[in-house]
Amino acid sequence: MTGGAIVLALVSTTVAHAEGRGDVRVTKTVVNGGKNVGVGTSKTITYPIAVTIRDNSGVKGLTDISVFNSDNGWGFSDWVGTRCEKQSSTTSVCTATMTVNPAWLPDSLPDPNTAAGTWQVNATVKAKDGDYWISDRIAQFKMKRASKLTTNASPEPVVKGHKLTVTGSLTRASWKDLKYHGFSGQAVQLQFKKSGASRFSTVKTVKTSSTGKLSTTVTADSAGTWRWFFPGTTTTAQVASGGDAVKLK
Questions:
Q1: Domain at 7-143, CATH class
Q2: In whole angstroms, what is the distance from residue 57 CA to residue 34 CA?
Q3: How crowded is residue 33: how many other Cβ atoms within 10 Å of its Cβ?
Q4: pTM for this structure?
Q5: Which of 123, 177, 185, 229 is deepest in the core (most CB within 10 A)?
Q6: Which top CATH class is 147-246?
Q7: Over the stretch 100-159, which tens digit does the pLDDT of each residue have?
Q8: Could you give the maximum distance between any two Cα atoms of the chain, in Å?
Q9: What is d(CA 103, CA 100) in angstroms, rounded to the nearest whole number?
């Protein structure tokens, strides 16, 4: 698949399917190093799919690979190259490089946002003796809409023991118009890292407004850094805001 093609996979996604000839098999598949793939509104995203292949005669390579939403069959990724590394006389790891250019997406579907969620990998592999194997769902991963999160704490500095107001905004990418929009009704964690500490701790959880806004008050007992953290959903990437350091006076 080249040129940013959008593919509707006309296959059953309820059960895995495989067919071929001989003993060549996929023994392991890892997408993006085990991480979700997040796509925003402008930056081209590149991610790897590492496929471990085994055959008694040795591995010739990966001859086809595709990715798409497991529920509705929609997908958008270019397969732009493959590099195979021989692990032994019978086993090789072939890594396919996939790309997504957000500019492809607005005209791809009536609502391309419906393609976010759980995706699967299908692949065809070939051995040196001519054996081949076509496998569906050799791996699953999450293709998610990117998100953004901001934080502002005031007043700065704040009198110890007085109230501090922490605000912010949670937005997520729309693949339909390539803009970020407020994400409503989401549980977002307010986190604090005391000056000199190494990690953030969650203070409370606040839900976003209808426009994705956040606002809450806390008592300022210590100097330190405040931030919001959104754990993400099945279709939207997790994100932590930049921190806002607040001093006491």
A1: mainly beta
A2: 29
A3: 8
A4: 0.90
A5: 123
A6: mainly beta
A7: 999 999 988 889 999 999 999 999 999 999 999 999 999 999 999 999 999 999 999 999
A8: 76
A9: 9
